[in-house]
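Researcher: Please predict.
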Amino acid sequence: MSQLTRAIRFVRHWHARIGILVAVFLLFLAVTGLALSHTDALGLNKQQITAGWLMRWYGLKPSVPDQGFLFKGGYLVASDGHWVMDGKLLTEPAQMPVGAISWGKMRALANTETLYLYLADGRLVDKLSGAALPASPIQNIANVEAKLAIKTSKGDYVTDDGLNWQPLTGAEPAWSSVQSLPDSASANLSQVFAPSLSLERIVLDLHSGRIFGRYGPLFMDITALVLIVLAFSGVWIYLRSFRKRSK
């Protein structure tokens, strides 16, 4: 048996076996690539994954605040641009709050530019900003004898209906303040503030290999080189077989 014949048999032997493994890898790349090509249609960027083991793999931990605004019958906490009122995640606000109080059957929450009015069940009733406020920016809010008071850099104002504002007179009210949260509230917040990642990000990391850490992209590079070798070896085997049949 000639050296060339041995070489051809060796290449065919390993070409077939490595090819099977690479085919599985190519199928994986094809599926993830197709998913990324249709991320909007599949809604990958809207689906949030909160699996604890996956978040630990990414090194993400919940950031649970231990302080917030306490008011009659509830509380408000903020972290990472999210507001949580009485265990309910609010989708409207984004800036850090400057005050939160209970006002009748509603909850009045404020950041520097907007005053939000919520029901106790988390439904947004109204939000006041710009010309709807007597002045801005808002610095704090308070409940003054069943009326809503706001503190601004241009003075303090009060309203009993959220529409008509008058200057606040009399004694300084008890403005809302940040306080330590009770243990009962902290326990609920661990689940609310659990870290999450979009499905699009996870599929992208799978496709690129980054989900496997610093060596993931290196593995992808090595696999790409193996594919190149397989391509050349496959062409070489085909040409040898074609020439042999021609003869």
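Model: Residues 202 and 211 are 7 Å apart (CA to CA).
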